[in-house]
From TrEMBL:
Cofactor names: NAD(+)
Family designation: Belongs to the NAD(P)-dependent epimerase/dehydratase family. dTDP-glucose dehydratase subfamily.
Protein name: dTDP-glucose 4,6-dehydratase
The enzyme's E.C. designation: 4.2.1.46
């Protein structure tokens, strides 16, 4: 079986669902169930003997080692993290704890477990670390996209903590020979994304008749990838990636935030029209994010050439599926908009709108 961390979050739960839809191999899914972890994402797996969910914290190295010894996985795929840039600006501490110390504790557990393996089991073990394009910092308008050779220049507490974890993973390969692979992916979107991130937040606010907050001038550029394409890239890296290597993953799809929001409004106008107005009338420009990176763009040529991975969805096809999924799963959205969610919205947006 394989061992997944963070498999109740957005990308992790998509990975677990896709994996079990395509393979007979079991998964032990270890997740702390922070505000971002949600077992509702995995209800379709109830009664599926291949899925073993364990509530656990990656910072607890002894518990991680005990689970590795109990389940004896052939590979570990590490998604667990604090993942939201705005939260990292308000409260960076949890990002250092989970993303840096937690990844360190997990690496130590994986190293101890891997050292008990022999022969083929040892050679074929993989530690796949899921990271972000944000570690490379911000690009100018005419700069070439990030390659695996681009120097790290993280600008937010989130990206700095992910960069630190990437360095630790690299060091465990070089120093101890632990067979690690790192993927650095661009912005994901799709089903089960928590509505604190741009795309699900805009959909939730649009349908609720609330303002659609655009930070700054809305001219920041992100590369967007549909989540199942990211999951396919991770599976490919696990299957055929070379230990010690880094693979950038992206959708070849750069868009300005304001254009993403306008596209969402246009699809909602078509699929769930609001009488007498366009959802675009709810757009509000609000105070910018401190240190806001202007542009991310990913050169995904290496994973295409070496591992034969390519995204299946274009932004047009992926965003339509995503909007339809949110419209069809309004109960899921309502369930995650708990008291904790509302206090986050108050903390992040009240002052911005006033300014
Ligand atoms: P998410 O915030 O939706 O989910 C994170 C999951 O990790 C949650 O289920 C949470 O409960 C769990 N978790 C947090 N701290 C934990 C701990 N100490 N121990 C165990 N579990 C813990 O995040 P996501 O968007 O699914 O991102 C998953 C990974 O992919 C992260 O490592 C992130 O940096 C990376 N990534 C995300 C994106 C994106 O656009 N969302 C893009 C590139 C890379
Ligand atoms: P986000 O989804 O938080 O992802 P990331 O910061 O990791 O790229 O934000 C995507 C972009 O959208 C980013 O440039 C910030 C911007 N943004 C807004 O303009 N308004 C919002 O309310 C949010 C959450 C994000």
């Amino acid at each position: 079986m394989i061992f997944v961390t963070g498999g109740a979050g957005f990308i992790g739960s998509n990975f677990v669902l896709d994996w079990l839809a395509q393979s007979g191999e079991g998964i032990v899914n270890v997740d702390k169930l922070t505000y971002a972890g949600n077992l509702d994402n995995l209800v379709s797996l109830q009664g599926d003997a291949r899925h073993h969910f364990v509530r656990g914290d990656i910072c607890d190295g002894d518990a991680m080692l005990a689970l590795l010894e109990q389940y004896r996985p052939r590979a570990l795929v590490h998604f667990a993290a604090e993942s939201h840039v705005d939260r990292s600006i308000h409260s960076p501490s949890a990002f250092i704890t989970t993303n840096v110390s937690g990844t360190f504790a997990l690496l130590e557990a994986a190293r101890a477990y891997w050292n008990t393996l022999t022969g083929r089991e040892k050679d074929e073990f993989r530690f796949v670390h899921i990271s972000t394009d944000e570690v490379y910092g911000s690009l100018g308008e005419n700069d070439a996209p990030f390659t695996e050779m681009t120097a790290y220049a993280p600008n937010s507490p989130y990206s700095a903590s992910k960069a630190s974890s990437d360095h630790l993973v690299r060091a465990y390969f070089h120093t101890y020979g632990l067979p690690t692979i790192t993927t650095n992916c661009s912005n994901n979107y799709g089903p089960y994304q928590f509505p604190e991130k741009l795309i699900p937040l805009v959909m939730a606010n649009a349908l609720a008749g609330k303002p659609l907050p655009i930070y700054g001038d809305g001219g920041q550029v992100r590369d967007w990838l549909y989540v199942s394409d990211h999951c396919a890239a991770v599976r490919r890296a696990l299957e055929a990636g070379r230990p010690g290597e880094v693979y950038n993953v992206g959708g070849w799809n750069e868009m300005k935030n304001i254009d993403v929001v306008r596209t969402l409004c246009a699809i909602l106008d078509e699929l769930r029209p609001a009488p007498g107005r366009s959802y675009a009338s709810q757009v509000r420009f609000v105070a910018d994010r401190p240190g806001h990176d202007r542009r991310y763009a990913v050169d995904a040529g290496k994973i295409e050439r070496e591992l034969g991975w390519k995204p299946v969805e274009t932004f047009d096809t992926g965003i339509r599926k995503t909007v339809q999924w949110y419209l069809d799963h309004q109960d899921w959205v309502a369930n995650v908009q708990s008291g904790a969610y509302l206090s986050w919205v108050e903390q992040n947006y009240a002052k911005r709108e006033a300014s």
